[in-house]
Automatic annotation (TrEMBL):
Family annotation (Pfam families): Uricase
PROSITE patterns recorded: URICASE
Protein name: Uricase
Pathway: Purine metabolism; urate degradation; (S)-allantoin from urate: step 1/3
Species annotation: Hymenobacter ginsengisoli
Length: 282
């Protein structure tokens, strides 16, 4: 039976880029991790050791930094498209480029209602994400998303009516804490959109639906979030969500002569429920 090379790709991961954008009265600080993946005519490098078509990953890294001064002044989606077009236009051996960008979010400090011109706070778990794919035929696909978004509400969440067997000890509840570390990814219908306003619109819709939804399960809320975003935003084809259940378990106060009326909890890291789903049109 003959042996041949299957699917393959290569690139540079985790190119950590920081950028100061200086405005007249204040600075922006942007911090992003960029990963580049190239797919194309690279068989000879694998089978013959011929590197004549291999753009060095160090060159890919340098390109991320070199293009940042002029082009990383807006959204990460827009910068991803700049990088993808650069690699495709200069390397005919490349059939497809995939650029992933994860942005660490920084906000200007505020004092007495005034934003400080050049001091920032950050370090939270929430990150903004984008993926750009571009083919040699210049067909572009753009995804955007959120990672590490901590969400919690203290009521309007229940879990009842589930199957029970000899191993079930979980009590039904009509009032519990619902907490998750949410990830969301959505695909845009075009690569020529106002990515900033759409991102903020989707994030706001996600937060509002989570807070207002009368949840009967994490699955119930996940679908409600995705459905609402698609209803409100025609520029999105589909949205996928990951919503692990960050459990807060009522602590037994009876040994201490107290009733726990849903006020004292044990926060547990593991094990945890892991719920995913994709909401699509039609």
């Amino acid at each position: 039976m003959p042996i041949k090379l299957g699917a393959n790709a290569y690139g540079k991961n985790a190119v950590n880029l920081s950028r100061i954008i200086r405005h007249g009265s204040h600075h922006e600080f942007r911090q992003v991790s960029v990963s580049v993946q190239l797919t194309g005519d690279f068989d000879a490098a694998h089978t013959l050791g011929d590197n004549s078509l291999i753009l060095p990953t160090d060159t890919q890294k340098n390109t991320v930094y070199a293009l940042a001064k002029e082009h990383f002044t807006g959204t990460i989606e827009a910068y991803g498209l700049v990088l993808a077009r650069h690699f495709v236009s200069r390397n005919p051996q490349v059939r497809k480029v995939r650029i992933e960008l994860v942005e660490h979010l920084w906000q200007r400090m505020e004092f007495d209602g005034q934003a400080h011109p050049h001091s920032f706070t950050g370090g939270g778990s929430e990150k903004r994400r984008a993926v750009v794919a571009l083919t040699a035929e210049c067909t572009a696909t753009v995804w955007a998303g959120i990672k590490g978004l901590m969400l919690l509400k203290t009521t309007d969440s229940a879990f009842v009516g589930y199957p029970k067997d000899e191993y079930t000890v979980l009590p039904e509840t009509t009032d519990r804490i619902l907490a998750t570390k949410c990830e969301a990814e959505w695909e845009y219908t075009s690569a020529d959109l106002d990515f900033e306003s759409l991102y903020q619109k989707v994030r706001t819709s996600l937060l509002r639906t989570f807070s207002e939804h009368k949840s009967l399960s994490v699955q119930h809320t996940l679908y409600a979030i995705g459905k609402k975003i698609l209803e409100e935003t025609e520029e999105i084809k589909e949205i996928s969500l990951v919503m692990p259940n960050k459990h807060h378990i009522p602590f037994n106060l009876e040994p201490f002569g107290q009733a726990n009326t849903n006020e004292v909890f044990v926060a547990t890291d593991a094990p945890f429920g892991y719920i995913t789903g994709t909401v699509v049109r039609g």
